[in-house]
């Protein structure tokens, strides 16, 4: 039942998903949102600054496994943090397992999760909702910034690698997961669950967007992601609880910063700049 054979195939699926989500979230053809985003980056230094800050933290996460090599730890906190859970995910898998459900959950975990991140930027930009754009950038940055120290110094292994009755169902649809995807997420990078925290963060922000269609989809996506991390045999309940706490914190701070940033210009946007003479005439001086 292998569907994904490489990261390239996942990137193709993601690109298609982003285009569909932009169309769904804006009601316009996807290039309209892309054009609005490109224009905002060019005309607004603050817009660009927030985007670059978000990219920087994403790059940090990409190289997190290399950071682990610089700060090696020689202990395992899996049993201390999640030892009480007793591999309940295996019972969930036995009760619900089907090829269709495995494919559905893996699609949301691998493709839709990152497609919603990308599409959110385009949707908020297209709507002219800069407050939510800034909030999104800050909230995403905080998710990674707070999670990385836990991954470095609080090692918790994925459920399937610890509990013998839990199976890593991702391999049914993506047999090369360990060689193609694992470098993005270490085996002991479990606590907190970033898939939970980021998907719930996106849902909380979408609920404030005024875009009902997008809010409903983002909420459904978060619910499916949370279910998928258990069904696929990856995360523990403790990871999810920590992820929810992280999501609430990141979204709340992001909204506060977004409101502040939207009301205090870092520098005048090119589109609103006036020549001194024109400014004088407009004020009657």
UniProtKB/TrEMBL annotation:
One Pfam family, short name: PAP2_3
UniProt key word Cytoplasm: no
InterPro entries tied to this protein: Aur1/Ipt1 (IPR026841), PAP2/HPO_sf (IPR036938)
Protein name: Inositol phosphorylceramide synthase
Annotated TM spans: 6-26, 47-63, 100-125, 132-154, 214-234
UniProt organism field: Cohnella xylanilytica
Superkingdom of origin: Bacteria
Keywords of this entry: Membrane, Transmembrane, Transmembrane helix
Region (Disordered): 266-285
GO CC term (a single one): membrane
Record-annotated Inositolphosphotransferase Aur1/Ipt1 domain positions: 88-252
């Amino acid at each position: 039942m292998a569907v994904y054979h490489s990261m390239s195939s996942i990137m193709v699926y993601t690109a298609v998903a982003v285009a569909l989500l932009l169309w769904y979230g804006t009601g316009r053809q996807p290039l309209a949102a892309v054009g609005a985003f490109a224009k905002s980056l060019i005309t607004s230094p603050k817009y660009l600054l927030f985007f670059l800050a978000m990219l920087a933290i994403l790059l940090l996460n990409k190289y997190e496994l290399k950071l682990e090599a610089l700060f090696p730890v020689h202990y395992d906190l899996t049993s201390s943090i999640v030892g009480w859970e007793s591999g309940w995910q295996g019972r969930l898998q036995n009760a619900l397992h089907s090829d269709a459900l495995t494919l559905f959950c893996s699609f949301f975990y691998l493709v839709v999760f990152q497609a919603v991140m990308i599409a959110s930027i385009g949707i908020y930009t297209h709507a002219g909702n800069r407050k939510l754009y800034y909030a999104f950038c800050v909230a995403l940055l905080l998710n990674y910034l707070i999670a990385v120290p836990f991954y470095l110094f609080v090692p918790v292994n994925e459920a399937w690698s610890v509990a013998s009755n839990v199976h890593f169902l991702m391999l049914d649809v993506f047999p090369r997961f360990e060689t193609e995807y694992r470098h993005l997420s270490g085996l002991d990078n479990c606590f907190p669950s970033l898939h939970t925290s980021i998907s719930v963060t996106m849902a909380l922000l979408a609920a404030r967007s005024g875009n009902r269609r997008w809010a409903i989809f983002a909420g459904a996506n978060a619910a499916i992601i949370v279910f998928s991390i258990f069904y696929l045999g990856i995360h523990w309940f403790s990871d999810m609880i920590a992820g929810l706490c992280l999501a609430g914190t990141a979204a709340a701070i992001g909204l506060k910063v977004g409101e502040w940033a939207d009301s205090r210009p870092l520098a005048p946007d090119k589109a609103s700049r006036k020549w001194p003479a024109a400014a004088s005439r407009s004020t009657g001086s």
